[in-house]
């Protein structure tokens, strides 16, 4: 699996218009939660891209300032800022891709699931509006706990009769970005040329890096496997602790979301061979929602590349992920039932 993906996986995010032809496939993208720790740098990276014609910034606060600031940058994307619930519908009309980093982040000592009570409602409200105002858009969910917010979004789209399982995706790109960085560091490789498929969910031991399917192929001792796996699974917490109460990963997440966005937009524009990992309704394993490498086309996700052949070590990681992932999924679905 790794070797197949290696030839097609995007390695670097492309920002400047000088390196790309804007062409005829520029797109309309919305960021919901655009004034936040992720929202602001993500919006900046998107504003720099020639792939975007219209950038719609929505938040419950501060978007007017963020929008005015970004709108002075000499790139093609037209920036519009919307603030407050009553402007949400206008922020979403005509959008083809909606990114959702709205929601509270962790503080030290919290799990992602501890964010559920606040973020489940935020995501449910925002996705309900997507269902009404841009039902065909691809919805990329960043807000935690991703393991639960994606099932919530799916149930809400279903309720409105507009669910397209190829278009509701949890963004797990940061796990892939971190895995490549940590492996490259440990093995003295160029991080831009390393691809590690990361499958499963996006929390603790539900994050399953497939180090046996690395591109380029590299072998690891048991000790290396243990320490790299643990670091990749714990990387979010590493940042939460370093930020000491002021938030979680924002800059690396903005990069990861921009990488995901540009891949999706290139695929929507007709580029072939676009692969990114993502958490989505899945038939690959016993889990109803599961992240795998996905091929994207003009219609969103074309197919999953599956999980490949797992090592014994990785089969054990799958076992360890079971109870948390299943209970996160169930919790999201139950919340949606009560919400609707
Ligand atoms: P933040 O608090 O800095 O920003 C969140 C923003 O959301 C704020 O500007 C806030 O006003 C806005 N917001 C709150 N309710 C809203 C609503 N109903 N509609 C629109 N906007 C609303 O937080 P952050 O650091 O940007 O993190 C945002 C979320 O992303 C958190 O849940 C965090 O756990 C998650 N996250 C996910 C990943 C991932 O890999 N998927 C990585 C990092 C962070
Ligand atoms: C991350 O992986 O950095 C995010 O999910 C934020 C967090 O709470 O760790």
Automatic annotation (TrEMBL):
Keyword RNA-binding: no
Keywords: NAD, Oxidoreductase, Tricarboxylic acid cycle
SUPFAM superfamilies hit by this protein: LDH C-terminal domain-like, NAD(P)-binding Rossmann-fold domains
Top-level taxonomic group: Eukaryota
Transmembrane segments: none
Gene3D superfamilies according to UniProt: Lactate dehydrogenase/glycoside hydrolase, family 4, C-terminal, NAD(P)-binding Rossmann-like Domain
GO-annotated cellular components: mitochondrion
InterPro entries: L-lactate/malate_DH, Lactate/malate_DH_C, Lactate/malate_DH_N, Lactate_DH/Glyco_Ohase_4_C, Malate_DH_AS, Malate_DH_type1, NAD(P)-bd_dom_sf
GO biological process, one term: malate metabolic process
Record's catalysed reaction(s): (S)-malate + NAD(+) = oxaloacetate + NADH + H(+)
EC numbers on record: 1.1.1.37
Domain Lactate/malate dehydrogenase N-terminal residues, every copy: 28-170
GO molecular function: L-malate dehydrogenase (NAD+) activity
Record-annotated active site: 202
Binding-site list for substrate: 106, 112, 144, 178
Domain Lactate/malate dehydrogenase C-terminal: 172-335
tRNA processing found in the keyword field: no
Any Pfam family matching the protein: Ldh_1_C
Positions with a binding annotation for NAD(+): 33-39, 59, 119, 142-144, 253
Complex formation: Homodimer.
Family: Belongs to the LDH/MDH superfamily. MDH type 1 family.
Name by which UniProt lists this protein: Malate dehydrogenase
UniProt source species: Didymodactylos carnosus
């Amino acid at each position: 699996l790794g070797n197949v993906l290696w030839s097609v996986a995007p390695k670097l995010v492309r920002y400047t218009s000088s390196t790309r032809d804007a062409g005829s496939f520029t797109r309309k993208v919305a960021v919901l939660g655009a004034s936040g720790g992720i929202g602001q740098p993500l919006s900046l990276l998107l504003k720099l891209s020639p792939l975007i014609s219209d950038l719609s910034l929505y938040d419950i606060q501060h978007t007017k300032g963020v929008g005015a600031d970004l709108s002075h940058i000499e790139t093609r994307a037209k920036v519009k800022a919307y603030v407050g619930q009553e402007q949400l519908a206008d922020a979403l009309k005509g959008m083809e891709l909606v990114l959702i980093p709205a929601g509270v982040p962790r503080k030290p000592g919290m799990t992602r699931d501890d964010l559920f009570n606040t973020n489940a409602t935020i995501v449910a409200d925002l996705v309900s509006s997507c269902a009404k105002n841009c039902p065909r858009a691809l919805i990329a969910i960043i807000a935690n706990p991703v393991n639960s917010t994606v099932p919530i979004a799916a149930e809400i789209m279903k309720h409105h009769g507009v669910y397209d399982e190829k278009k509701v995706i949890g963004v797990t790109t940061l796990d892939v970005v971190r895995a490549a960085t940590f492996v490259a560091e440990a093995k003295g490789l160029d991080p831009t040329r390393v691809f590690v498929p990361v499958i499963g969910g996006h929390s603790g031991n539900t994050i399953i890096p497939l180090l046996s399917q690395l591109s380029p192929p590299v072998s690891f001792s048991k000790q290396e496997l243990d320490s790299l796996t643990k670091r990749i699974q714990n990387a979010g917490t590493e940042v939460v602790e370093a930020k000491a109460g002021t938030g979680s990963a924002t800059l690396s997440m903005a990069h990861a979301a921009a990488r995901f966005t540009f891949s999706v937009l290139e695929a929507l524009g007709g580029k072939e061979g676009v692969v990114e990992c993502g958490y989505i309704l899945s038939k690959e394993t016993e889990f109803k929602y599961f992240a795998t490498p996905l091929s994207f086309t003009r219609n969103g996700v074309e197919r999953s590349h599956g999980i490949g052949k797992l090592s014994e070590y990785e089969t054990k990681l799958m076992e360890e992920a079971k109870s948390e992932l299943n209970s996160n999924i169930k919790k999201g679905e139950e919340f949606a039932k009560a919400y609707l």
